[in-house]
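Q: Hi! First time asking for a complex rather than a single chain. Here are the components, and I think there are two in total. Is that enough to go on?
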Amino acid sequence: MWERIKNWLEVRIGLDDLVRSQVTDYRVPKNINIFYTLGFVAAIGYLIQVLSGIMLLIHYVPHPDHAFKSVQDIMLKVPFGWLFRQMHVVGSNLMIAAIGLHMLTVFLMGNYKRPRELTWVGGALLLLVTIAFGFSGYLLPWTQLSYWATTVVTSIPTAVPVVGDVVARVLRGGDQVTGTTLSRFFAFHVSVLPPLFLILAGMHVFLIKRIGISATPFGLPAEEKRPWTEYHKKSHADGYPYYPRFFQMDMLMVMVYLALMFFLITVAPNLFFPEEATVPADPFRTPPHVHPEWYLLAPYQMLRIIPNKFLGIIIQLALFLLFLLWPFFDTEKEKNIMKRPMLRVLFLFAFVLWVILMFWGGY
Amino acid sequence: MKRRSFLKGLLAFLGTTTLVSFVYPIFRYLAPPAGTETSKTVVIAKRDIPLGDAREIVFNNVPAIVLNRPGKGLIAVSRVCTHLGCLVQYDAANMRLVCPCHAGIYDLEGNIVSGPPPKPLPKLPLRVEGETIVIG
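A: Yes, that's all I need. Here is the structure of the assembled complex.
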């Protein structure tokens, strides 16, 4: 039966050739390491978010009168609703962590450098879209925490002269966070961001396949230092086949990801549900200590400590553009960060600053 | 057994176990919830349904109708058309129940007069206790 299906597909789409060229004969560099699997892990993380999100959609009601109760019902009444909600919430945080770690390791291995500038830009945009997923999904349970965190974050654009108020009003669909905001965020979360993510992810994978996987800068001659005057696909003819060798590494890390997810769900089920996340939204009472999720704490704290709000936003915008377009600023050919003391110091400074701001923002 | 075969078998076992362990939660999550408790009876005052008139009710989550037929007395039948589930309406002028979807026509006992319905409308238990009508 299986053979007949394979033959049927073979005659029509050349299945053998497809598997050979894309999987078994597809070579990866010999000095590849475990960190190269993080992109695949993030893709699986996205798949988990889509599947658990579809499950939640079946019982969730995007209306201010029903949203909180429908989420509570999912957690307490619907059989195994808690499982799919926890997977979605914990998964959203892990996915952002996986993409962040992926970008960090790409940065440290210099793999954003020529000719992979566009791959980096696509990856940075994917991180931005994933954070937008997290931010828009945060409001949907309509809790005190989600309501006021959204109020705070959607107030940030008001610091920009002339257009700031308009931007904030468009985001909220009015002067305050209301049912209109909930409808907007819901539509954005389930129908705008998913196709945007898929388009960017498709471009990202296309570029990786078209340009070829970059070798690590450690232990191999820096052959990419040669003049770059024409398209050249890096095929790693002497490398290892993707399947089974690298595929096993991919699957190992997926298992680590899943193990971490279910460990957190089992051992720390309230990790992402502080007390205010279990109280329905009250537009007439602001709870103390409102702050966004951990991945937005550093920029949030930066805005709080810079006395001029507009200046704070301009600095953040500049930092984001620097991050997005970093391959075009760092044109040094040397990929190995161990041979670039200045970059090492700059990275350490930025990293430590980020961590300090993140913890500071949480208090 | 070779090490490679053992590892392949172990991977297949673990993968299958992982996937199968989700089958029951997904099935339970998607299964329709158990029906909510509803009152076993519906009570209406007799004076609310004059002769030749009808009153629409909901009995155990099913739309139904109580008819006061001239010369034949009270009867309660389901309003759910046995063809494709649309709700029949009382046509007082012609003394019949008409389905608006595919023109199924029933008499006031719920029997098929014409059209595509395959079965009569189910009758509901009804009794009169003094000045009240009790359905159920």
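A: The domain at 31-215+238-297 of chain A is CATH 1.20.810.10 (Cytochrome Bc1 Complex; Chain C). Let me know if you'd like any chain examined more closely.
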